[in-house]
Amino acid sequence: MSSHTPPQDSKSARVCVAAFSSAHGVSGAMRLKSFTENPDDVAAFKVLQSEDASRTYEIEVVSHTGKGELIIKVNGVQTREAAELLKGERLYVSRSELPDAGDEEFYHADLIGLAVKTTSGKTLGTVRAVFDFGAGDMLEILPKEGALIMVPFTQAIVPIVDIEKGRIVVDPPEGLLPEEKKKKRKKPQKAKKQEDQK
Question: What pTM does this model have?
Answer without folding.
Answer: 0.62
